[in-house]
Design a protein that fits this description.
The complex is a heterodimer of chains A (1038) and B (541). Chain A is mainly beta and 1038 residues long. Chain A contains nine helices and 59 strands. In chain B, a hairpin with a 2-residue loop joins strand 5 and strand 6. Chain B is globular, with a radius of gyration of 26 Å. The chains are: A mainly beta (1038), B mainly alpha (541).
Chain lengths: 1038, 541
């Protein structure tokens, strides 16, 4: 680094000497952005080697005294600096600055407003659409990991169409959603995932009313065509909440879509072809025959005798997984007439996953327009359509993976059905009693979703005078998803008597929202002021119709008539032929006052008033404030900028409080269908609470921004602290003496803190060669600071997916803890041994035995550019954080994990006998020898409890995305008629994973993105590890 | 500038209008459109009745007496599992984070709880006194059943929806409550006029008494009788109270309190013990009832009971054999091992697709008895016996056996091979056998309790457990054990946590109490691993 600095400083020193003797004259000109030719206000214009400098005015103009031959250095935040050597021309000079990749010229902030970065009292981070597109990930969310400090993506697994949950700055709410708000061009868009839990038919979910584990549904924001994204601004903290309100209490993702750049016809096309291969898979040990306690038996456990020499073992996973293939075609066209420009884009994506029968297909169409009407008005309407089709397979507890683990390796899994299509069991006479063959599972238990989504939006900007701006954003978003899940009559997951089961549903979402703001600006001398007032209306309506039945007529038909009428159950309103419905409406009014002094100090105060339909009338109207302060230290003390080390230093702080809303209708205890003889109704499990208040969240952050070494290095650091008080805890268990099982209360508080650093270094930036490094560091920690005294543990039922481990929390523990059974220990902490059999005694109490929160994460992106070649790669490092390796526990239980290899070695489990003397001065040391092969309980939950499979401090270093591209030289391209530019690329996803985790992939989530609270990330059970993907394609414009 | 002012005025006016209309739209969206906060009380009763036995998944899987009965039935040795090492066969209590033996708890507090409260509340508003009475009747039964299983329970603080922790009350208070709720039930059931309407009541209790208020009154008297009978060890015990209520109670089989099942092919409408619900696949008849029915019990030596084909299963040898708890196949050769209750082989634990081979209470559509006339007769017999009025005791005893026979022939005749069916002759022969029906002078408590055991076989596990606990399993009358030949598990056959003591209660439901009511559990000693052996107040002297 030091050498590098010398290299950079050396030419500057030489310049100093050069300029000393020349003649001084006034040089004037304009600074513009090369991107769109717009003038740049506030750009710094300096004579190289001197302290003489000025700034451009509001029209981008500057004038400066400089001698002929002097070098003028022009710099502006978010742009690569440029040097201009003063020649004969001394006026009307136009200096074009190239935006740097991490462009910050004017960022879009909450409410689709644009602000200059220096004004902002909070951190924002922006990801360019081109970076996301480069990753070639169909769910653009998955392309964000590592690119934003404090952003965590938890994908459900590696299947096609898998959902991904996204969390900004960790978990605040224990039982409500922690997902951020998605805003596209100022319009709020839905990102829900089908929830399978319907609360006895009283809510939206499947009629079979089950936890969110065994199936998956795409999270709906992935409907967005990654290719339509111009940029994403991530608002992580108080600012999002202060202006977007309760919906954004977990932050906001502001997506700006691509707009036509001019009215000249321009067409772009690109495609990508991808192959996917599963390379990560838990270690499965194959050494022993089916059996128990050392004796062969016809069971799906492998504690029998060793395989006789020469036994041919089959690698069944080779017969199961296949090479995934997908193709994408994107087309975009810009055109227009006069002041009305259009952009039309389309995309076709078709994926066959690595798991048979797992396919995902998506078609996107979008048209947007920007029209200037008269002098003052600009409108930006858009219309988008997407259709997605997802053929799915069961996962986790009911999935193919467990079958693949458990199937005998002497048996070819391809023999899963007879000629008549019946399941062929290996051992059992009753096929329903035998774990589904993995191929049978994915072929006979199909599941599918189809979604059609339409989004219409209209933006209006009115600038009647130079001090007043009125903007309106009106959006309508609607989709309909239709789907089914079928369990074959012979499936293990259905009893024989039920003769199959089939869930059918449709779900329709209608969302309307608008935001209208009026902003007035006025400068008084050195004081600048701005007043913004606005109103927001949100109206979201989701309808669902769901039915489940048994006794299937035909396993190749998937509509609900396939089930026997007497077995059908429906959501409550569906019984009456209507749909179940969930409506959330919210009205808000807000205002923001900003005062700036001399472009050096900026103070913002905002206040938001809300009324939300989910709350009881008495608590329905609430309001909260937000404030932020930004101070440009380097401009207050310009002497700090002397030299090139420190170019810019900003300090900022902000604080805000917000509210988080309860789920609709969690204020009313309702009756659900009772299926007893005679039918009727009974109360559902939930004691809802008519007195709920909104959850109160208070956050403050302090941060700083630095630009160093001639703006080569940008550095941004933030500390935040969020207190979430009076949490609305849904599904809160108490004694059944309430008359219910689950309760809803304002109970509990959590504190969540973190430290984020992002740094960006343009280490080289020459015409031919460039090297940019970006680093995002994130460290979070959290604590449950309050829970009712009688609640020893709170957990969400969805997270209890295998054995006795779940996402439970305790008072003064972390919000990301894992609670489970473990070893019973004496007061000295020694493991206690059951004197009857020499195996450990089990502490059958859910205690905190792990924490999933990592110590820190670092995402590093390197981008190299050499002439027409470009190479970019992202390393994602996670250090610390525990993972419950349920796969391994399962494999150990059935005798297929490498822990069981030395099963014939006699051993004495180290510990103290649980004989009544365990806490005396002379406890009995265990001397009972066991040979686990003959006592296979040694490997079961009573010998190795869940605690033994919570892997501590799991680290990973992943090469998330690596992309290599080549832009054909114009000389070459010109030869092809009509083509303006042509490029080719090769992108690999998830190529390298270096980890101390002993399973397949530690990044796993046992729940879908519909799971709330902290969810079941860090629970690895029957999910598909991320496959490796290689993409190649071309990009062309015409 | 003026234009701007005008625009501002318009916007303001528009704003005010839209705010008020928005407020209305917000208000409209508050109410749950999918599910009601109020339902007709006629539609609440069927679920409550279903819950008395075993609810379906949607209303809390398996809440009710039948699921706990599977375990309690092992304590009283109705049956055992066909493998060794099962802690319930060993009289163990629930351990770990399991809700086993917590189904009655869930039935009472959740399944019935607020639903019954609403029937009472709304029924009172609607003056449907019959419904109010029935709700109280079920409530009284439920309180008594609850305390019989758990001892001290949450009584005074129950059903407070805003409380976080709940105090437990003494068992004596629960008995007082049972009787007072019974009296309230009777006062409502005696009311006529207003909204009282047998046809309307039948909408709610179609699968119980089908609108017959008089039968409900008998049900209440039966609960009263039980509550007095169960306190036989107390100095306050009054045989006349038992007799008084027995005389008013269910005295003929047609008044039997049966939960009935529509059996429409879904879980909730079928009997908990039937093959469709598949809950008793692991159970095999125990040796104790087999011996009682086949002349191998020293109280009834040499007498083969004509009820055996109804209550028991044969083996491939065509004989009746039972297993001993914690002894697996108990040394029986394969051909001697009994079929399971659905007529399949000893080793088969899965449900057959049809119940064509299942009998008695093990069929999908079988009635599930809650209280029967036979039980009342045996209570009567015991009360007379304790009063020293042996001839009257004998009459009741004899009547009890007869009624028990008749109940089987009338209501549980399905799938009995005609050759093995009870005939008037076989019944008369049995009743005429002095080994079974001795002279009044030779009648012992043992006769009464053992015949009651047989009459309640399978369905009456809680009441039989009450009896066994009253006699501390092995109490003697003179030199003779009341439950003749009953051998509780001992030594290594007794669950390790029991500390060599027999089981006297179930611990409260784990996921209700052991996570959220620790302080009270600690006060009661319920955190001890042998809490299941703590004798309840009602059986103490």
């Amino acid at each position: 680094m030091r050498n590098l600095l010398c290299m950079l400083l050396l030419p500057l020193m030489l310049c100093v000497q050069q300029t000393a003797s020349a003649q001084v004259q006034t040089v004037s000109g304009t600074v513009v952005s090369t991107r769109d030719g717009s003038v740049l206000e506030g750009a710094t214009v300096q004579i190289k080697g001197s302290t003489t400098g000025t700034q451009t005015d509001s029209k981008g103009n500057f004038s400066i005294n400089a001698s002929k031959g002097a070098t003028i250095v022009v710099s502006f935040l978010g742009f690569t600096g440029k040097e201009y050597k003063v020649g004969d021309k001394i006026s009307g000079i136009t200096i074009g600055l190239v935006p740097s990749d991490n462009s910050l010229e004017e960022v879009v902030v909450a409410l689709d407003l644009k602000r200059k970065p220096r004004e902002l009292g909070y951190s924002t981070q922006k990801v360019l659409g081109s970076e996301i597109q480069e990753t070639q990930r169909e769910n653009f969310i998955n392309g964000l990991q590592g690119r934003v400090a404090g952003l965590t993506i938890n994908p459900t697994g590696g299947t096609a169409g898998a959902s991904s949950s996204i969390v900004l700055r960790g978990f605040n709410s224990l039982s409500l959603s922690n997902e951020p708000l998605f805003v596209v061009d100022g319009i709020i868009m839905d990102n829900s995932t089908v929830n399978e839990t319907s609360g006895g038919g009283s809510g939206l979910g499947l009629a079979s009313d089950r936890p969110n584990r065994n199936n998956d549904y795409t999270n709906r924001i992935s409907d967005i065509n990654p290719n339509d994204i111009e940029s994403i601004t991530v608002l992580k903290g108080p600012e999002a909440t202060a202006l977007y309100g309760s919906q954004a209490s977990s932050g906001a993702m502001l997506i700006t879509t691509k707009k036509a750049k001019s009215n000249k016809l321009a067409v772009q096309y690109d495609d990508a072809f991808r192959v996917q291969q599963l390379t990560r898979y838990p270690d499965v040990f194959e050494g022993y025959q089916n059996g128990e306690n050392g004796a062969n038996a016809n069971v799906f456990r492998y504690y029998g005798e060793p395989y006789p020499a020469g036994t041919k073992l089959i690698d069944n996973k080779k017969y199961f997984f296949k090479t995934g293939f997908s193709q994408t075609h994107n087309i975009g066209a810009d055109f227009g007439v006069k002041k009305s420009v259009f952009r039309v884009s389309g995309s076709y994506f078709n994926q066959e996953g690595v798991v048979p029968n797992n396919n995902f297909k998506r078609i996107n169409l979008r048209i947007s327009n920007t029209t200037k009407i008269g002098k003052y008005i600009e409108i930006t309407p858009s219309l988008a359509y997407v259709r997605s089709e997802n053929d799915k397979v069961l996962r986790s507890a009911g999935g193919y993976m467990l079958g693949l683990f458990a199937y005998p390796n002497t048996y070819d899994i391809r023999k899963y059905q007879d000629d008549a299509g019946n399941k062929i069991p290996v051992f059992a006479s009753n096929p329903n009693l035998e774990l589904d063959n993995p191929l049978f599972n994915v072929n006979a238990n199909p599941s599918r979703d189809e979604t059609d989504r339409y989004t219409a939006s209209l933006g209006i900007n009115i600038n009647p005078t130079d001090w007043l701006t009125i903007t309106g954003r009106f959006g309508y978003d609607t989709y309909r998803t239709e789907g089914y899940t079928l369990y074959h009559p012979k499936s293990f997951y259905i009893t024989q008597a039920l003769n199959g089961e089939q869930d059918n549903y449709w779900r329709k979402y209608n969302g309307y929202n608008h935001t209208i703001t009026a902003t007035a600006k006025k400068d008084f001398g050195k004081w600048s002021t701005r007043l913004m007032v606005g109103t927001m209306w949100q109206d979201y309506n989701t309808q669902m119709f769901a039915i489940v039945g048994n006794n299937l007529k035909d396993v190749t038909h998937f509509d609900s008539s396939n089930t026997a009428p007497n077995t059908r159950r429906r959501l409550l309103q569906n019984n009456l032929g209507a749909w179940n419905e969930q409506v959330t409406r919210q009205m808000a009014g807000f205002g923001e006052v900003s005062v700036g002094y001399n472009n050096l100090v900026f103070l913002n105060y905002s206040h938001r008033f809300e009324a939300a339909s989910t709350l009881p009338k008495v608590n329905r109207n609430y309001n909260y404030p937000g404030a932020s302060l930004s101070v440009i230290i380097t401009d207050i003390f310009p002497e700090l900028k002397r030299g090139t080390t420190l170019n810019y230093w900003k300090l900022r702080t902000s604080a805000a409080s917000t509210a988080r809303l309860n789920s609709p209708y969690s204020t009313q205890s309702v009756f659900v269908d009772n299926f007893a003889s005679g039918g009727g109704f009974s109360y559902g499990f939930v004691n809802n609470n008519p007195n709920l208040e909104p959850e109160k969240q208070q956050t403050f952050e302090v941060g700083t921004e630095l630009k160093l070494f001639n703006n080569i290095l940008n550095f941004d650091a933030t500390y935040y602290n969020t207190l979430n008080k009076g949490q609305i805890v849904e599904g809160f268990r108490l004694s059944y003496a309430t008359g219910f099982v689950l309760n809803t209360q304002n109970a509990g508080s959590t504190r969540n803190q973190g430290f984020e650093v992002s740094a960006d270094a343009n280490i080289f930036n020459n015409t031919d060669f460039g090297w940019n490094v970006r680093v995002n560091f994130n460290k979070m920690w959290n604590e449950v600071v309050q829970l009712p005294a009688n609640v020893a543990e709170y957990y969400l039922g969805d997270t209890w997916l295998y054995g006795n481990a779940r996402g439970g929390i305790t008072l003064h523990g972390t919000t990301t803890s894992i609670t489970s059974y473990g070893y019973l220990r004496n007061d000295a902490g020694k493991i206690l041994i059951n004197p009857l059999n020499g195996l450990p005694a089990i502490d059958a109490v859910f205690r905190v035995r792990g924490d999933r929160n990592p110590d820190y994460t670092i995402g590093t992106t390197n981008t190299f550019r050499y002439k027409n070649w470009r190479l970019s790669f992202l390393w994602d490092l996670k250090v610390g954080g525990d993972v419950f390796n349920a796969n391994k526990m399962y494999l150990t239980g059935i005798g297929k994990s490498d822990l069981t290899i030395d099963r014939y070695t006699p051993r004495v489990v180290e510990g103290i006998l649980n004989d009544g003397k365990q806490n005396t001065a002379n406890p009995t040391v265990n001397t009972i020898a066991v040979i686990p092969a003959y006592l296979d309980a040694y490997y079961g939950a009573n010998g190795m409890p869940e605690e033994a499979f919570i892997e501590k401090d799991v680290n990973w270093l992943r090469l998330r995305d690596v992309s290599f591209s080549y832009q054909f030289p114009t000389t070459f391209v010109k030869k092809i008629k009509g083509v303006k530019s042509l490029g080719a690329f090769l992108t690999a996803n998830d190529l390298i994973l270096i980890t101390n985790y002993t399973g397949g992939d530690p990044s796993s989530n046992g729940n879908t993105a519909a799971g709330r609270g902290v969810g079941a990330w860090g629970f690895d059970y029957g999910s598909l590890p991320t496959p490796i993907s290689i993409n190649f394609g071309i990009r062309a414009s015409f | 500038m003026r234009n701007i002012k005008n625009i501002a005025r318009c916007l303001l006016a528009l704003g005010i209008i839209s705010i008020s209309s928005c407020a209305k739209k917000i208000d409209e969206a508050f109410i749950n459109p999918n599910a009601g906060v109020k339902k007709p009380i006629e539609t609440l009763l069927p679920g409550i009745i279903g819950n008395m036995v075993g609810s379906s998944a949607a209303a809390g899987s398996a809440y009710g007496t039948a699921n706990d009965g599977i375990y309690i039935g092992r304590y009283v040795q109705f049956w055992a599992t066909n493998v060794t090492g099962n802690q319930y066969d060993q009289m163990g209590g629930a351990t770990g984070a399991l809700d086993i033996l917590g189904s009655v708890w869930a039935m009472h507090y959740f399944g019935m709880g607020q639903n019954l409260n609403r029937i009472i509340e709304w029924g009172t508003e609607e003056k449907k006194w019959d419904y109010v009475g029935v709700a109280h009747a079920i409530k009284a039964w439920s309180w008594l059943t609850l305390t019989n299983v758990y001892g001290e329970v949450i009584l005074t603080e129950a059903f407070n929806t805003s409380q976080l922790t709940f105090k437990y009350n003494d068992q004596a208070d629960v008995y007082d409550t049972v009787r007072s709720v019974c009296r309230t039930a009777l006062s409502f059931l005696n009311q006529t006029g207003d909204g009282v309407d047998a046809q309307n009541l039948a909408k709610g209790d179609a699968y119980f008494y089908n609108g017959d208020v008089n039968k409900w009154k008998k049900f209440v008297y039966s609960v009263m009788a039980r509550s007095f009978n169960q306190l036989s060890n107390k100095t306050t015990y009054n045989a006349d109270s038992v007799l008084f209520y027995c005389n008013l109670a269910i005295n003929v089989n047609s008044d039997n309190a049966y939960a009935r099942f529509a059996n429409t092919g879904i879980t909730g409408t079928s009997n908990y013990f039937g093959p469709f619900r598949g809950n008793v696949g692991a159970l095999r008849q125990a040796q104790y009832p087999v011996n009682l029915l086949t002349g191998l019990n020293s109280r009834f030596p040499g007498v083969v009971d004509p009820r055996a084909p109804y209550l028991l299963r044969q083996n491939t040898n065509g004989t009746y054999r039972g297993i001993v708890p914690n002894k697996g196949a108990s040394g029986l050769v394969a051909a001697d091992r009994p079929e399971n209750y659905w007529g399949q082989g000893f080793d088969t634990v899965t449900s057959p697709t049809s119940d064509a081979k299942a009998r008695y209470i093990f069929r999908n559509a079988a009635y599930y008895p809650i209280i029967t006339a036979a039980e009342i007769q045996f209570m009567k017999a015991e009360a007379y016996y304790r009063k020293g009025e042996k001839p009257q005791a004998l009459t009741a005893y004899q009547a009890g056996i007869g009624i028990a026979f008749d109940m089987l022939t009338a209501d549980f005749n399905a799938n009995i091979p005609p050759a093995q069916a009870i005939t008037p002759t076989s019944k008369a022969a049995y009743l005429g056998n002095p080994v079974i029906v001795p002279s009044a002078a030779n009648l012992k408590l043992s006769h009464i309790m053992l015949q009651k055991y047989l009459a309640l076989y399978g369905y009456g596990s809680i009441e039989v457990w009450n009896d066994m606990r009253r006699f501390h399993y092995t109490d003697q009358e003179g030199a003779e054990q009341v439950f003749t030949d009953f051998t509780p598990p001992a030594g290594t056959d007794l669950f390790i946590n029991n500390n060599n003591k027999l089981v006297y209660r179930a611990r409260p439901r784990y996921n209700s109490e052991y996570l959220y009511n620790i302080a009270e559990l600690d006060r009661l000693g319920a955190l001890a691993l042998d809490y299941n052996t703590k004798e309840q107040w009602f059986t103490q002297k």
